[in-house]
Every structure is written in C-alpha cells, then in structure tokens.
Design a protein that fits this description.
Length: 326
Amino acid sequence: MTGIKTTGEKTLLLFSGRAHPALADEVAFELELSVSPTMIREFPNGEIYARPEESVRGCDAFVIQAFGPPINKWIMEQLIMVDALKRASAKRITVVMPFYPYARQDKKHLGREPISARLMADLFKVAGADRLMSVDLHTAQIQGFFDGPVDHLFALPLLADYIANHYDPASFTVVSPDTGRVRMAERWADRLGGVPVAFVHKTRDPKAPNQVVAHRVVGDVDGRACLLIDDMIATGGTITKAADILLDSGASDVIVAATHGEFSEPAIDRLKNSRISEVVVTNTLPTSDEQFFDRLTVLSIAPLIGRAIREIFQDGSVTSLFDGNA
C-alpha cells in the first residue's frame, strides 16, 4: 500500500525526490508502505516539474531528499515538491533532509558573507513545509533557523553500536578532529563505556576553505587505537591529516566514524591512500559505485528515519528515540 491510515482516517504518505531513491525505498520498507508516485521531469531549459500522482488532500506528507551533487538541483526539486503538496491541500508537510544543505554556512566569518543555512530554512518555510527533519546538523543552532518544529536525529547510537560490535571499545581513545567536536567526542566516549578523549588542535585559513594550516594532538594517544569522529567527510583533508598526526604521535591504529559521507574530490583518493584502517559512514548521502573502496563501511540510517517518521505521524516523541540525549 502507499499510505498508512489511523482510525481517524489520518493518512501518512511518503514522497521522494530523485537524488537518493534507494534510501527512500529503505525508509518505506521500515514503515511497511511504498513511496507515493510522483511525476518529476525537466523542461529543456532545466526547469523542474513535480506533481503527486494521487490525492494528498488532508494527508500527513513526508518528503525525503538527499543532497549530494548537484546539490542545488536537488534542493530546487524538493522545494517544488513541497509547493505542489501544499497547493494540493496536504494537511502537514515534513521535509526529511538527512543531510542539511549549506549547513557549514551557518554564521558569518568575514564581512559581507551570507548565512546560507538560514536561507535554506526560509526557503522551505515559504514553500510550505511545516516541519523539518535532519540527521546530525553541523551545528545545533541551525534548529533555530526554521520557524517551526525541527527534529534533530543522531546517528551516534547506530555508529557506536557498529564500533562496539566489531572492535574492543576499551582499547580506544575517542578523538575529535577539532575543538568544535570535543563535546561530541565526550558523548561517544560515554557511549563506549567511559574511554579516554583527545582532540586535534588545528588552525585554519578563513580565506582557504577546507585547508588546515597547522595541528597538534591534545591528549594521550600513545599505544592506543584511535576512533576519529566527525559529522561529515568532505574532501577528506581534515580526517586524513588528523589520522597521520595521531599515528605519528604513537597511536596504534585509526578508525574513522562519520555520519555524512560527502566524499567530494579528492576524498576517495585521500582515504584509499591513507593509513586509516576503516571508514564508517551512514547513507544519509548516496555513495556511487566509484566511491566504494575496501575499507569503507556504509550503515543504513533508514531504520532511524522510519522510527522518527512514525513517531511524528502518531504524535509521539522523537526525543524518546534517544532517551532525551544522544
């Protein structure tokens, strides 16, 4: 069936853009329904047309889209889908964006810079979104950019359970690649049973994005395996350089765990040629066949998203999925 109904005839419909249909299908499987059919096509000049192929009047609509390249195209597609659903009288529209677009542009570093993460929230609100759902926002303040409920999901339990099932957590030091992720490293350490925490202190050039000028390890990693954690892997520069300095500082091994595998060029080459033993990410973003390598593990985020959607639809508590914390 394409929808779930409550006794009061409340209906859940799941819609998907074209960026990551495999994830949408997995979420639909978790919800025991199918993705609602949508006509999506492009005009010769690149303009996008979207129309749901069944009645959505009074439904609780969830629109899922991943934001890999070409990211601007997929943003526009989801905005148009939301607008179509709003004009077709959907009762409530929840935008499911496992990876929040433009999240790194969440504040001004230099004069005359945009705050593009806020612009994204404004665009979806104007299009007709009532609610947003995302996984591991780059910064928690993004929740305040949207004028409505924002469900912030956490991949830490999924990733940490994988690590605990495949390694000896007691042998790890959890390492943050920068000072901004130390709190997250502490949460990881608590989840793994109170293991030590360290971080890599680095200096960036604000005029050269993704380029590290200098870094050093703060904390004892000598003779220990290091679990290097982050919210995303973009070009791989930060992660691979951090792994090198950890190993050069006496670490016995480095495992990487991150939520979003963006893998912009030249990330895959850097990771393949690095001394990292394993890279573990989730499928919040699609991973092409060309991007897979033998040390890459991709875990499905679909069960988490599916449970969150069900909680929202049944007016339950998304926070309860994490026992009030992550």
